[in-house]
């Protein structure tokens, strides 16, 4: 499957293909939204409407799921999405100091996207690697046991 951002013109057929691949199963709503976000880079409203229509579920339900989980975004995101875990273990072990450096290095607040469109900075719930807290995830890669001085070095890999 094409995982690069696609034109919304093909939204209808692309959404249909994804929903059919999941057997039109309402229980697969989260997996379907993951696939849609992988294709478009985020969850555009037109895509949510198509998902609701193809699954025959209320748009409010689809929208509720799309806005509940921090891994989903209903707004366009940067080329690289940096997610900072905000749950207790990471918080206690210095997540805020990582955020300070990330915001300073990128010149954007949490929730923002750089003007060049390279980075989006987001909070997320537990990444499942509490043993190496504090942790962040950039795209699909997790970085743990982080200290603030490691952030600029890591960002360089994505610039
Ligand atoms: S609390 Fe941060 S990874 Fe689990």
Give a description of the structure.
The protein is an alpha+beta fold and 159 residues long. The chain has two domains: 8-68; 80-156, Glutaredoxin (3-Layer(aba) Sandwich), CATH 3.40.30. It is 42% helix and 11% strand. It has a four-stranded mixed beta sheet with strand order 2-1-3-4, covered by helices on one side. β3 and β4 form a beta hairpin. Bound molecules: FE2/S2 (inorganic) cluster (FES).
Question: TL;DR of this structure?
Answer:
This protein is 42% helix and 11% strand.
Please name the defining characteristics of this protein.
159 residues, alpha+beta, Glutaredoxin, 2 domains, 4-stranded mixed β-sheet, 42% helix, 11% strand, elongated, disordered N terminus, binds FE2/S2 (inorganic) cluster
């Amino acid at each position: 499957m094409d995982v690069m951002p696609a034109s919304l013109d093909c939204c209808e057929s692309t959404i249909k293909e994804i929903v059919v691949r999941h057997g039109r199963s309402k229980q697969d709503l989260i997996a379907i939204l993951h696939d849609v976000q992988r294709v478009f880079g985020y969850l555009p409203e037109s895509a949510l409407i198509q998902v609701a229509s193809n699954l025959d579920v209320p748009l409010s339900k689809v929208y509720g799921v799309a806005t509940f989980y921090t891994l989903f975004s209903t707004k366009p995101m940067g080329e690289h999405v940096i997610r900072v875990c905000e749950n207790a273990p990471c918080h206690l072990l210095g997540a805020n100091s990582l955020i300070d450096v990330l915001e300073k290095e990128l010149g954007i607040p949490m929730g923002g996207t750089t003007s060049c469109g390279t980075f989006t900075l987001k909070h997320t719930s537990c990444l499942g690697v509490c043993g190496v807290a504090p942790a962040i995830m950039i795209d699909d890669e997790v970085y743990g046991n982080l200290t603030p001085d490691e952030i600029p070095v890591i960002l360089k890999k994505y610039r």
